[in-house]
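Ribosomal RNA small subunit methyltransferase G (Polynucleobacter brandtiae), 221 aa
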Amino acid sequence: MSSELMALGIENIGLDLSSSNIADLDLFLQEMGRWNRVHNLTAIEGAEESVRLHLIDSITVLPVMRQFLTAANPKIADLGSGGGLPAIPIAIVQPTWHLTLIEAVRKKTAFLQHVRGRLALKNIEVLSERVEAVAQSRPRQFDAVISRAFTNLNHFLDLSLPLLKPGGLVFAMKAKRADEELLEVSMSNWTLLADEALHIPLLAVERRLLVLSPAITPSTL
Ligand SMILES: C[S@@+](CC[C@H](N)C(=O)[O-])C[C@H]1O[C@@H](n2cnc3c(N)ncnc32)[C@H](O)[C@@H]1O
């Protein structure tokens, strides 16, 4: 997998990435490809496809996240991180943000710990636990929660609520079914702050980022 190919897609997102960012993203994809061949971390094979579908998909959310996360060092939880998406690419590009990767399957968290060491990523922690358990052990500790391909929107919101600080944000990465899933959400409990169409360079697929905030704080529930 070449950096030229990555740069081609990345340039079009409008993120000002350093050469060290690109080298780290490149290294992450190489590690993912290597582990995937052994452990079947993701269903998608082929480096070029991985670049488009995984990494670029994960970092296209950044311009919107930057608008909403204005504190210097926000704490963000990635629910059901799997092989580290979107948390690892976000942590690479945003070194002042702190990412907590929550993933129940141990062979996946072993990979995430390996990546943490290999890329010397000081701003991530990996929890080998179910999200429901972390909600009990770390209530109201996160400024934001994000997920990609984790569960349906309603369930994701239910799982996110106890983790959020008052005024916390939920970033839901969604594709075509976003409208259907939004209909299932009780909008008396949640405020939809943004619904952004994301453009994935070189890829003609629909992607959306929904940004929601609880209408009532978790302590009043
Ligand atoms: C389809 S994968 C998506 C992985 C990654 N976010 C991505 O976009 O490639 C969903 C992941 O969520 C994890 N998962 C599902 N339910 C979970 C729970 N309750 N707590 C923690 N992890 C969970 C699964 O083990 C799986 O790795």
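The radius of gyration is 17 Å. The first strand starts at residue 75 and ends at 79. ok done for today
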